[in-house]
Write a structure and sequence with these properties.
It contains three helices and 22 strands. It is of the alpha+beta class and 393 residues long.
Length: 393
C-alpha cells in the first residue's frame, strides 16, 4: 500500500505536465509566425490617362441683373398706405407697387390750384381794364399814367400766375410721388416696408430687378488685362445651381481701380427663362497660354504639396520613365489585369502642372500614360511595399 501511493502521485504529476505541454503546443500552433508588414496590402488603382492641359485663371464674380431699381419716394415724406407686391412677383412697367398717405400733399395741391385760378381771373380783369383805358387814352378822356399803371398791374398778376403755376407743378410732382410704380418690366426682389411705416425721400420701399439678361461681373488682376479682352471665351460655373455655361466677355474697363489695381469685366448672359439668381457667386475661368501634353489622374490618387503631386505607382509600370502596357494589348483606360501578389508600390513625386475639376495633371515625362496609380489604400503604403489589388471602376 505504501509503495502504490508514491507511484500514483508520480503518475499524476507526469500527466499534469503532459497536459500543460500539449496546451502550450496547441496555443503556439495558432500564432502567425509571418510578419504583417511582409503581407501584400490590398489597394485599388486607376490607369493614368493621356490628356492635354491648358493653363487657366479662375476669378470670382457676381451675377448682377441687367437693370435694378430701388423704388421709393423722392420728394415727399409720408406714411406707407399700401404695398401691393411681395418678393417674386412679376410686374409690368408702370404697374402700381405701393401707395403713400399723401393727404397733406393733395390738400396743398388743391389750395395752390385754387389760388392759381383766382390769380388768373384777376389778371384777365386787369388786362381788360387796361385795354379799355387804352381806348379812352386815344380820345383824350384819361391820363396816360392811369393806362401805364393798369398795364403794370396786369403784368404783375401775370407773373404771379406763372409763379403759382410753377408751385402747382411742384406740388403735383409730390402727389405723383405718392404712387410708386414699376420703372420697367421685371420682378420684385425685396420688400423693405409694410403699411404703417414712415418713408422719407430716398427710402426704398420695393426693389425691382430685370433678369431677362444678367451681367456676370468680376474684377481681375491687372496682370490679366491681355487675357480678358472683349470676345474672349470664358467658362462659367454658377455656384448656387451648379450649372456650367460658356460665354464671351462683353466689355472690359479701360483702366484699373486705383485702390485695388484690378480690371473690371462684364459678361452678358441671356436668361429668358430667368433661371439664374442674381447677386450670387459665379466662378469665371479664362484660359491662358496653349494646350500642352499631360497625364491626367483623379485628385484622389495623389497628395498635393507645395506645387508637387505625391502618389504611388504599382510595380514597374512607371519605373525608369517607361510604361508597361497590358499584356492583352488593350488601350489605356480599358480593362487591365490586376497586380498579382508580390507587386510593389513605388512612391513618386512629380511637379504639378495644374488642376481642373476633379483631376490633376503632370508631365508625361514624370508619369507616362497607362501607369497604374494607387487610389484607395495609399494612406497605409510606404515606398516599396508589396501590394495586391484591382482596378477601380
Amino acid at each position: 500500500m505504501k509503495v502504490r501511493f508514491p507511484v500514483a502521485v508520480a503518475c499524476g504529476v507526469v500527466l499534469v505536465i503532459a497536459c500543460g505541454v500539449a496546451l502550450i503546443v496547441h496555443a503556439e500552433s495558432k500564432n502567425n509566425k509571418i510578419a504583417l508588414s511582409s503581407s501584400p496590402k490590398g489597394v485599388s488603382y486607376v490607369m493614368a490617362r493621356a490628356s492635354t492641359y491648358r493653363p487657366s485663371h479662375t476669378h470670382i464674380g457676381t451675377i448682377r441683373p441687367w437693370v435694378e431699381a430701388n423704388v421709393g419716394p423722392q420728394f415727399v415724406a409720408a406714411y406707407v398706405d399700401t404695398v401691393l407686391v411681395r418678393p417674386g412677383a412679376d410686374v409690368k412697367r408702370n404697374a402700381v407697387l405701393a401707395t403713400l398717405d399723401c393727404r397733406n400733399a393733395n390738400a396743398a395741391t388743391l389750395a395752390i390750384s385754387s389760388q392759381a385760378r383766382a390769380i388768373d381771373a384777376r389778371q384777365k380783369a386787369i388786362a381788360d381794364e387796361a385795354a379799355r383805358k387804352r381806348g379812352l387814352l386815344d380820345g383824350g378822356f384819361i391820363a396816360e399814367n392811369d393806362v401805364i399803371q393798369a398795364l403794370s398791374r396786369s403784368d404783375a398778376e401775370s407773373a404771379q400766375l406763372s409763379a403759382q403755376l410753377a408751385s402747382l407743378a411742384q406740388s403735383s410732382l409730390q402727389v405723383s410721388d405718392c404712387i410708386l410704380r414699376a420703372p420697367f418690366d421685371g420682378e420684385v426682389a425685396s420688400r423693405f416696408m409694410d403699411p404703417g411705416a414712415f418713408a422719407r425721400p430716398g427710402t426704398t420701399v420695393v426693389n425691382v430687378v430685370d433678369r431677362s439678361t444678367v451681367r456676370i461681373t468680376a474684377d481681375v488682376p491687372e496682370s490679366d488685362f491681355d487675357y480678358v479682352g472683349p470676345g474672349t471665351s470664358a467658362k462659367i460655373r454658377i455656384v448656387s445651381t451648379g450649372r456650367d455655361l460658356v460665354a464671351s466677355i462683353s466689355r472690359r474697363a479701360p483702366s484699373a481701380d486705383p485702390g485695388t489695381r484690378t480690371i473690371h469685366i462684364e459678361i452678358d448672359v441671356p436668361d429668358a427663362d430667368r433661371s439664374l439668381p442674381v447677386n450670387t457667386t459665379a466662378e469665371v475661368r479664362v484660359d491662358v497660354g496653349q494646350p500642352i501634353p499631360a497625364t491626367e489622374l483623379p485628385i484622389a490618387a495623389a497628395t498635393i504639396q507645395n506645387g508637387k503631386a505625391v502618389f504611388f505607382v504599382v510595380d514597374g509600370s512607371a519605373a525608369g520613365g517607361t510604361s508597361q502596357a497590358p499584356s492583352d494589348g488593350s488601350a489605356a483606360g480599358g480593362t487591365s489585369q490586376a497586380p498579382s501578389d508580390g507587386s510593389t508600390a513605388h512612391l513618386r513625386v512629380a511637379p504639378l502642372l495644374g488642376e481642373i475639376g476633379g483631376s490633376f495633371f503632370v508631365s508625361p515625362a514624370d508619369l507616362p500614360p497607362n501607369a497604374k496609380v494607387v487610389t484607395e489604400g495609399r494612406e497605409l503604403l510606404n515606398d516599396n511595399d508589396h501590394v495586391t489589388g484591382k482596378e477601380a471602376k
